[in-house]
Design brief:
Layout (H helix, E strand, L loop, with lengths): L5 E4 L2 E6 L3 E2 L4 E2 L2 E8 L1 E6 L2 E6 L3 E4 L3 E2 L1 E5 L6 E8 L1 H10 L13 E3 L4 H15 L6 H18 L3 H6 L9 H8 L6 H7 L4 H12 L3 H18 L5 H4 L8 H12 L7
Antiparallel strand pairs: 1-2, 2-11, 3-10, 4-9, 5-8, 5-11, 6-7, 6-10, 8-12
Helix pairs in contact: 2-3, 6-7
Amino acid sequence: MEDKSHILFNNLLYSCVDKKQRANESFVPEHAFGYIISGETHQKTNEGIRVFSAGTIGLIRRNQLVKSEKVPGPEGEFKSINIFLDQPFLRRYSAEHKLTPAQTYTGNHIHILKPDPFIKGYFDSLMPYFDHPERATDNMAELKTKEAVELLLNFNPDFYDFLFDFSEPYKIDLEAYMNQNFMFNVPTAQFAKLTGRSLASFKRDFEKIFRLSPGQWLQQKRLNEAYFLIKEKGQKPSEVYLDVGFENLSHFSYTFKKAFGIVPSRV
């Protein structure tokens, strides 16, 4: 059956769901420019949970670890539009406009934009293409993406470095990063990239610091966090397993019992 809850038109995505839905991915690989039409999105980073309500327009930087949940509003639906500004497109745009190299971006990774009639009008202008996808073309997607970049730069010139800094993550403190982000269920190769390392270098540095392989340490860390949340915070296993980085409840329960000798519901 065709999934009509998500309509993807090149790099433009329309979402419409009628029940809570967690995102499948915890990693944001490219810049995303989004508008919440109705409902809320709950986003969890290593800094905590932020709730964004209907009418919110935001910009999130690439290479971020974020857990998000779509929550329908009183009218019964969550609706949003997202434009993904990927590196190949931005490099083409930069070459076409002969842009000067950007500075290394060091600002906030998530920006919530103040209300702006031009940007709101832009998102409204996308809806007919999702209602009538047969009228959508690759050229139209390219034009609408260029329009998004023009609007962002006009809204805030400081977004120039945000958008056009093409540098990759530099080598950072591995121990601190992993202790802050262990709950994000992403491949080891992704953690390596985000800490500015090759996969081989990441594994080598990791074992020097933690005396365990990444897989062993992540499982142990996630289980300990789950035990704490269930025992000390009174949370249910069904509320915990996704938050600490497990993919499904049955695997979590099996692994938990193997580690602690008791099923999580009996803690």
